[in-house]
Design a protein that fits this description.
The protein is α/β, with parallel strands linked by helices. 40% of the residues lie in helices and 13% in strands. The protein starts with a helix and ends with a helix.
């Protein structure tokens, strides 16, 4: 749709050269859903075991670092251990700061599904320490509503209330409140109404996990339409263009950190740049466990800020 609008603008300017359109500038929004704040801490025993086995089997030479990270992580009481493979927040913020663009971290404030939610608490001292650290470095915080909040405004309200209370306690201004639904869950009929009722003003969920690109047909933020009440929504939708797992993981396109994956990211970024739109990227903190992941992540910033 953005390309069609650009074409229509060019036709209008052909006949009305003095007509002034609102100009836009390309924006890059890196963001991170904190589903698993750490691999070896704040998780249920079954998930902890699974994370440990994954780390141990992913690379035989990593046994020593995995085991030392494991013990340091479970022994650390007031902050997440930097040796934990999922504790990549400083790396994410370092990269964002190097290129002068803030990151947004979406944290969960509730758990409503025993398999799909992680059950960490926003009030845990380690999470509070992390929230303060992110805010002190000038990055943003948003809410990652749990699995079953999709059409349940009472559940979502309780998570928003806790989110606001915790963020108030660390002096973070939650207005406007932003969110992205866990698993990118979305119902065209009721999601915007549920978000409105919970007082959320910006949503970043609109994407298909199995198909990176333009679910909303645009990369620009837009005022949503509340189909439940048949009226304009108070929520501004910020379409998500790419999630790392959609492109890299075996569950989806399975391209891993290959040139094909890079080329697909390049196409998506270039489509947004060509219309001076917004490239919104989701990269999970738990998907930077290898040096290949980290190099790939940083290469996307290079591509955006220092194009060849
Ligand atoms: Zn999630």
């Amino acid at each position: 749709m953005d390309e069609w609008l650009l074409y229509i603008k060019s036709v209008v300017l052909l006949y009305l050269p003095s007509f002034k359109f609102r100009s836009t500038q390309f924006i890059f929004n890196p963001s991170h859903d904190v589903d698993n704040p750490a691999a070896y801490s704040l998780v249920r025993p079954k998930r902890l075991l699974s994370n440990l086995l994954t780390q141990l089997t992913s690379n035989s030479s990593s046994f020593r670092s995995s085991s030392s990270g494991f013990f340091r992580s479970i022994l650390s009481r007031y902050q997440l251990s930097a040796e934990d493979p999922f504790v990549t927040y400083d790396y994410l913020m370092d990269v964002s700061e190097e290129y002068g663009t803030p990151s947004t971290f979406f944290f969960m404030a509730g758990s409503t599904h025993k398999s799909y939610d992680t059950f960490y608490s926003l009030k845990n001292p380690k999470i509070l320490h992390l929230l303060r650290h992110i805010v002190a470095r000038g990055h943003r915080l948003g809410l990652h509503p749990s699995y079953n909040t999709l059409d349940d405004s009472n559940l979502l309200n309780s998570e928003v209330t806790l989110f606001r209370r915790v963020l108030d306690s660390i002096n973070y201004d939650t207005t406007p409140i932003s969110s992205r639904n866990h698993y990118l869950r979305w119902s065209s009929y009721c999601s915007l109404n549920t978000l409105e009722q919970a007082g959320i003003q910006r949503d970043y969920s609109l994407a298909y996990a199995d198909m990176p690109g333009f679910r909303a047909s645009t990369c620009f933020p837009f005022v949503g339409y509340n189909h439940f009440n048949d009226c304009s929504s108070t929520v501004i939708c910020y379409p998500l263009i790419a999630m790392e797992s959609s492109i890299l993981d075996t569950a989806y396109l399975a391209l891993s950190t290959t040139p094909s994956a890079f080329s697909l990211f390049q196409q998506l970024i270039s489509s947004c740049q060509s219309v001076n739109g917004c490239f919104s990227l989701l990269w999970h903190n738990c998907h930077l466990t290898s040096s290949a992941d980290r190099l790939f992540y940083k290469s996307l910033f290079d591509l955006i800020f220092h194009p060849p």
